[in-house]
Here is the input.
Amino acid sequence: MEFPRIAAELGLFLEMTDDIAQSEQLFERMSAFALKFDCPWIAYGPLASKQGVFKPNRQDSVVMWNYPAEWQERYSRMGYAKIDPLIKKGRKEAGPFRWSEVYTDESITEDGRRVLDEAATFGLRSGVTIPLHGPADSFTFMSFAQSSDCELLNRTITYLQMAALQFHLRVAKLGTPTEPEQIHNLSPREIECIYWVSKGKSSWEIGTILGRSRNTIDFHLKNVMRKLDASSRTVAVVKALKFGIIEPP
Here is the structure.
């Protein structure tokens, strides 16, 4: 799929999921979006820092996955969440990572590599995991899996990350009362800065484009994150897209 079309699909996904009131429907939308990138399997679930086991449950409104049933059963029965190298790496990483990076990492244990080898025998041959860190050391992740050994492109991973963040924000909001519409009062300069972040630009690059110093750009982006109650620039981009502050990239 060409990237302009992918960007349009992302914008449509953000728009369509904004009014969904059930997590199961959100998961269906997320699955359909991931399939456009040849990722037929996804998994989403929380894991608190002191929680030892990830307990998959299709009926749970928070923990959801559509991996092959045989692999779900084996993963749960063997307690693989305790040694899953994707979960271990996700606890330490802030950004997305490919499964191949984990497999070839020198720090991976023999048991951890065995989990990935077994997953491949059930069809999950490659993928990417997106850590979603929250308050009180809470940790949620979303994984996208493929049946081939093809690696996802960096830009594709960025789109999947934005979709995962939107999904995560919507699931979290389903458990809280609806808040009244807020006006975030971003300045024109702040809107420019977050727009260029959505284009993948760094603070230095944005400063060059706008003729401002890197420190000035960082200052504006910190204000954006504060006004949008975002924990990172990527979350700020997702919220800016959601509220119509900027257009999809």
Remarks:
- The beta strands are 41-47, 64-65, 97-98, 126-133, 139-146.
- Residues 48-61, 176-183 have pLDDT under 50 and may be disordered.
- Residues 162 and 238 are 6 Å apart (CA to CA).
